[in-house]
Each structure stands twice: as structure tokens, then as C-alpha cells.
Amino acid sequence: MVVILLDGSECLTDDDRIIIAGKKNRNILIAINKSDLPLRVDIHELETILPDIDILQISAKYGQGLTQLKDAIHKAVIGCDAEVSPSLVIANIRHKIA
Question: What is the pLDDT of residues 22-69, one digit of tens each?
Fold first, then answer.
């Protein structure tokens, strides 16, 4: 899974477009941060580059949208909603030890 975090207060750069286009064949979630500021990212452009991709707007500063982001990541990785997940999944023993 690839989570692409964009600064919503800035327009997309050429580098952003290259990175996004290079991930077309991956499981992608786009999070647009700084939703508390005026939106300058062109969401329609993102939808054109990556149709049918979840795009979430968050504000890390104020914690807005973070629960939805966590739920979307959980659903993409585990394959079900966080509320119905039977238990914690640990992919690597190092993570359990930590």
C-alpha cells in the first residue's frame, strides 16, 4: 500500500505528478493535508490521474480526518473495516518485540 501525502495549501508540482503517475498500478490512498487552509491542490486533476482512488482531506495540525485516514489504511491493508477486525495483525516479529 502507498499513502501519498500532499500539501493541500500548495498546487501540485511536476515532481508530485511524476510520483503519483508512477504509482498507478499500486494500492494507493491520497491524503491531502492542511485542510484547515485554503485548498490549492486540484482534486479534479488527481481524479484524472488516478480515477477511482480514495482521496481524503486531513488537518494534522487539528487532528481532523485522522480517524478516517487510519480507517482507510486499515481497510486497505487488512481488507475489512477496523470495527470488524477480529484482532491485531503483526506482520513481522520485530514489531511485536518493539
Answer: 888 788 899 999 999 999 999 999 999 888 888 999 999 999 999 999
Judged by DSSP in three states, 33 sits in strand
Look up residue 96 and give its three cell numbers: 511485536
> Cβ distance 50 to 26 under 8 Å?
no
DSSP tag of 11:
P
Distance CA 32, CA 17 (A): 14
Alpha-carbon distances, residue 39 vs 27, 58, 70, 76, 85 (angstroms) = 25, 11, 22, 26, 34
Distance CA 41, CA 16 (A): 11
Q: b or e along 34-53 (b: 16 or more beta carbons within 10 Å of the residue's beta carbon)? A: bbeeeeebeeeebeebbeeb
